């Protein structure tokens, strides 16, 4: 039994290391999102760090319209990045979890 516990602890530490490596890798995964008319383009990492924003000069004439575009497009980009992030980290966590009956957290 003690050996099983040590094995599980080792596997959990290995999984934690893989999760940290995955988080670092997700800093290099870029997500692009654009408004429907492509007047605003946003690039962020899968860890939801904004890397670039391109704004069509036409949008600079109307502050309220630009704000609306930013809110809508940023929210869509963050949603995409979150899905990628959760899928990647969930896969690593599920792979490394010991098989404990009743603990099917990552189905």
UniProtKB/TrEMBL annotation:
<dbReference type="Pfam" id="PF02575">
    <property type="entry name" value="YbaB_DNA_bd"/>
</dbReference>
<dbReference type="InterPro" id="IPR036894">
    <property type="entry name" value="YbaB-like_sf"/>
</dbReference>
<keyword id="KW-0175">Coiled coil</keyword>
<dbReference type="GO" id="GO:0003677">
    <property type="term" value="F:DNA binding"/>
</dbReference>
<comment type="similarity">
    <text>Belongs to the YbaB/EbfC family.</text>
</comment>
<dbReference type="GO" id="GO:0005737">
    <property type="term" value="C:cytoplasm"/>
</dbReference>
<comment type="function">
    <text>Binds to DNA and alters its conformation. May be involved in regulation of gene expression, nucleoid organization and DNA protection.</text>
</comment>
<dbReference type="GO" id="GO:0043590">
    <property type="term" value="C:bacterial nucleoid"/>
</dbReference>
<comment type="subunit">
    <text>Homodimer.</text>
</comment>
<feature type="coiled-coil region">
    <location>
        <begin position="5"/>
        <end position="32"/>
    </location>
</feature>
<protein>
    <recommendedName>
        <fullName>Nucleoid-associated protein DIS18_09320</fullName>
    </recommendedName>
</protein>
<keyword id="KW-0963">Cytoplasm</keyword>
<keyword id="KW-0238">DNA-binding</keyword>
<dbReference type="InterPro" id="IPR004401">
    <property type="entry name" value="YbaB/EbfC"/>
</dbReference>
């Amino acid at each position: 039994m003690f050996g099983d516990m040590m094995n599980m602890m080792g596997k959990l530490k290995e999984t934690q290391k893989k999760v940290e490596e995955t988080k670092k890798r997700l800093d290099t995964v870029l997500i692009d999102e654009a408004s429907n008319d492509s007047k605003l383009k946003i690039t962020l990492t899968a860890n939801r760090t904004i890397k670039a924003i391109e704004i069509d000069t036409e949008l600079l004439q109307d502050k309220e319209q630009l704000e609306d575009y930013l809110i809508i497009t940023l929210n869509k980009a963050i949603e995409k990045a979150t899905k990628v992030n959760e899928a990647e980290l969930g896969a690593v966590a599920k792979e490394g979890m010991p098989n404990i009956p009743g603990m099917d957290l990552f189905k």
